[in-house]
Design a protein that fits this description.
2 copies of one chain form a homodimer. Helix content of chain A is 15%, strand content 24%. Chain A has helices at residues 22-29, 64-70, 94-97, 115-122, 214-217, 234-237, 259-262, 288-295; strands at 2-7, 41-45, 55-58, 84-88, 109-113, 138-142, 149-152, 158-167, 188-194, 199-204, 222-226, 270-274, 298-300, 306-308. In chain A, strands 6-5-4-3-2-1-14 form a 7-stranded mixed β-sheet. A 7-stranded mixed β-sheet of chain A has the order 7-8-9-10-11-12-13. In chain A, strand 3, helix 2 (64-70) and strand 4 (84-88) form a beta-alpha-beta unit. The longest helix of chain A has 8 residues, at 22-29. The radius of gyration of chain A is 18 Å and the shape is globular. The N and C termini of chain A lie close together (5 Å). The interface between A and B is large, with 57 and 57 residues.
Chain lengths: 309, 309
C-alpha cells in the first residue's frame, strides 16, 4: 500500500492566516527550522497501482487544489480526468470536508462516510447541491462502524483495499453542536487493509483519548496519529485561546497523560504524528519536544511524505 | 486607492484539478509562457492606509489561505490578528464564498452582501454556524442596489471608501438554481469610490452581457472585468463541456459580440481582464488572443498584480 501525506497540519494550516505565534511568524520569515504545512489529508493507493493510478483520499481539506497540484500522481491523464476515485471522510469538520466543494467540476466521486457524517453534510447544506449536477456525480457508500468495506478503484473495479471505520473519542463539528445529537459515528478512525498482502495502515487524526486504543493500533504497518497539540495548555500559554487541548477533543502528545507515554509500547512498524497545529513546538526542528518525539521512535509527518508499506 | 489582485482565475483555478487541456498541461509542465493563477479575489485599501493596514476583500475564494500567505500586506501583526477587516460578496458562487469558511478561527469580520446573497449563504447552510462561535464574529452589512455604502476599516472606523452594488446580468449559484427565485440581487458589480480623492474602481467579474453597461464603466480609474472565456464555444471545442460561455453567464472577450469590441470606446484609465478560465487562450503569452487584448489597450490580470489609482 502507498500513502502520500497531502497535508500534515491541523485546521487552519501552518502558518494560519490570523496567527502571529512564534512558529507562524518564523515560517513566514523563512526560518529553515520550520516547514509550511497544509491541512490534514492523505492519499492511499494499492501497491499494484501504476503511476498514475486510482487513488482514495482520506478527508478533503480546504487546501485540496494546491495539494493535488503539488503531487503529480494526482494530476489528470486526459482532457477531463482525475486519478482520484473516492474520498473517505472521518468526520464532518470543515478542515476535513470543505475540499469536496473544490472538486465540483463534473467528475464522478465515491464518498465513504458514516450516516451521521453524510447527513450533517448533505442534508443540512444547500451548497452540497453543487455536487448534484448530474446523477452520478456523488455516490455515497455507507461506513458501518467495525465493518470493513471494499474501496472502489477506477471504473468501480475493486482496489483490493478495505476500509474499516471505528469510533474514536471526539466531538461533532463546531457547526453541528446543538443541531444534531452526538453519535459514535461523528468521529472515526480508519483501519485500511490490503488483505492479500497482510498490510494495515491506521489513520486516527482526531482523537481525544487513547486509553484502551493501544491494542487496536498493534500490528499496524503505519499508524498516523493525532499530533495536534504537544500540551493541554499550549494555546492558553501562547495567549491564542482559552481552550485546552481536551476541550478541542485532541489528546496532547507530551506529559504524563500524553499519547507518547500512553502508546510507548504500541507495536506498529511506523508511528507518525500528523494533523499538527501551528502552535505545536514539535514543528520546530531541534526543539526539545521534537527531539522527545523522534527519540521515542515516532516520525513527524510533513507534506509530500511518502509511506510505502 | 490600492488594489491587490489575490487571484485572477475563474472557478477551478489554473491549473484546474481535473483538467488536461493544453493550458493546464502546459502550466503543470512549467511552460514559461503560462502563469498559474488562483481563483478570483481582490483586496482593496484606501491610499492612506499604512503598511500593513485595514483591507477589504472583494469575494472570498477557496484559495484564500494561500492568497493571504502570498501577500505580506495581509499577514497578522500580533499574536491573534488580521489586517483584513471586511469582505464584500458579489454573488453566492462557491468560488466567491467558500473562503469564508477558511477564516473561521475567531476573528471578527464584517460581510457586505445583498440580502439575496446573505440568505442563500447564511440561512441554507449549517456550515455557516462555524462563523457564529461568538456574537460579533460576523457582522452583516446590507448592500442595497444602487446605493453607496461606507466601507468600515479597523475598529469600525471609516476607511473613506464606499462600495455601490449594481445588478449585473448573470445567474444564481448552481446550488441555488430551483431553490430560490432569481433576483437582481443574485449577481452584482461593485463601484468602489474614494470620494475625497475622486477615484473609482469597478469590479465586474461575472457578467453575461455588457450591452448598456459602457456608460457606467466610463470614468473608472480601473475596470476589472469578467475575462472568463475568449469565445462562446471554447469549452465545447476543447471537448471539456457542452456548455457555451453564455450558458455559464460569462460574456466572451473575443468575436463580434465580445466585450473587447463592445467596450472599445469605454473611457477607463486602466481596463483589466480577470476571472480568467483555464481554457482561455489569453493565458498563453504570445498567443494571437493575448496580443489582441493587449493591442486593444487592455491588461490581463495575474496574481499579486498591484493597482494604484
Amino acid at each position: 500500500m502507498r500513502a502520500l501525506v497531502l497535508g500534515s497540519a491541523a485546521g487552519g494550516g501552518f502558518p494560519q492566516w490570523n496567527c502571529g505565534c512564534p512558529n507562524c511568524d518564523g515560517v513566514r520569515r523563512g526560518d529553515p527550522r520550520l516547514l509550511a504545512r497544509t491541512q490534514d489529508s492523505v492519499a492511499i493507493a494499492p501497491a499494484s497501482t501504476g503511476e498514475p493510478g486510482g487513488w482514495t483520499l482520506l478527508n478533503a481539506s480546504p487546501d485540496i487544489a494546491a495539494q493535488i497540484q503539488a503531487n503529480s500522481a494526482l494530476h489528470p491523464r486526459a482532457r477531463r480526468d482525475s486519478p482520484i476515485r473516492s474520498i473517505v471522510l472521518t468526520n464532518g469538520d470543515l478542515d476535513h470536508t470543505l475540499g469536496l466543494f473544490s472538486l465540483r467540476e463534473s467528475w464522478p466521486l465515491v464518498l465513504y462516510a458514516t450516516d451521521a457524517v453524510r447527513q450533517g453534510l448533505e442534508e443540512r447544506n444547500a451548497v452540497f447541491r453543487t455536487l448534484r449536477r448530474f446523477p452520478t456525480q456523488v455516490t455515497w457508500k455507507r461506513l458501518e462502524l467495525g465493518r470493513p468495506t471494499p474501496l472502489e478503484g477506477e471504473g468501480g473495479a475493486p482496489t483490493g483495499l478495505t476500509v474499516e471505520a471505528r469510533p474514536l473519542p471526539g466531538k461533532p463539528p463546531v457547526h453541528l453542536v446543538g443541531v444534531t445529537p452526538p453519535s459514535p459515528e461523528d468521529n472515526v478512525g480508519l483501519w485500511i487493509r490490503d488483505p492479500a498482502r497482510g498490510k494495515l495502515v491506521v489513520y486516527a487524526t482526531a482523537v481525544s483519548r487513547v486509553d484502551g486504543l493501544q491494542d487496536s493500533f498493534d500490528g499496524a504497518d503505519a499508524l498516523l496519529l493525532d499530533g495536534t497539540f504537544w500540551s493541554s495548555d499550549e494555546l492558553v500559554a501562547l495567549g491564542l485561546s482559552r481552550a485546552r487541548a481536551e476541550d478541542m477533543a485532541h489528546a496532547p502528545i507530551g506529559g504524563d497523560g500524553g499519547t507518547l507515554a500512553a502508546l510507548a509500547r504500541v507495536r506498529a512498524k511506523r508511528k507518525i504524528y500528523t494533523h499538527i497545529n501551528n502552535s505545536n513546538p514539535i514543528l520546530l526542528a531541534g526543539s526539545p519536544e521534537e527531539r522527545a518525539v523522534l527519540d521515542a521512535g515516532w516520525e513527524i509527518a510533513h507534506d509530500k511524505m511518502e509511506i510505502s508499506v
